[in-house]
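INFO  loader      accepted 1 record
INFO  loader      residues=60
INFO  predictor   begin
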Amino acid sequence: MTNKIVWRKSSRSGTQEGNCVEVAALPEGIGLRDSKNPAAGHLAVSRRHFTALVRKIKNS
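INFO  predictor   done
INFO  writer      dumping tokens
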């Protein structure tokens, strides 16, 4: 059985000019990619680091 990766746009991404970040649950953690260029690849981070990143962004 193959797990399908489901990308979703961040609720905090801007709607102007299509500047959106997409996130997905990956086997190795959390994936982040640019919705304008998904073929360019993605950045994978651990769940712990993703949580720390979101916390830091929220506190900015």
